[in-house]
Amino acid sequence: MLLASTAAPALQAAGFVGTWDTDVPAGRSVLDAGAATMLAGDLSLAGRPLPLDVALGRVHPEDRDWVFGKIRRVRQEGGPVSLEFRIVTGTGETRWILNRGCLTPDAAGTLRGRGAYIDITDLHSRSAALPDGSGAPEPSEAEHLDAAADHCLRVHTALEHHGDTYLRMISGMLLLGIGRAIARRAP
């Protein structure tokens, strides 16, 4: 178990930016201080319900349409959220952000979402700086496993709505197997 005294440095070392909490029917998201500063560009917006265009005001212009479109779709359907996109900071620097979370019904049946933002710029800067100029390398085994986990989560979520017990069991077993493989690769 991670002690509270080590949680903040561990999260910072992992690139943790901040969290979001979305009230889907209202079309508003509440960002914590880190997310408001990095994604909206204004610390004073932390804790306030924000429309999507304000909450993600710093999304790179080239990524804006597809990011907003994907978020709008998941707000209609619910389920997991996993997006990598660029932002432009107040100083003009481009950073890569991973947005992970899930939109699910609360006890009253209202769709709500919660998740986190992680700065993954270091992962993209290594592939962009390949000496032969060939661009991004072939995805590693770990990246393929991460992609499989994301796809399996989507399948499992869809099967939860389908109701077939046998298929849910199989997708649950696959998720368990993928989770174990990911745990084995962790140092």
TrEMBL record:
Residues 56-109 form the PAS fold-3 domain. It holds the Pfam family PAS_3. It comes from the Bacteria. This is PAS fold-3 domain-containing protein. It comes from Methylobacterium tardum.
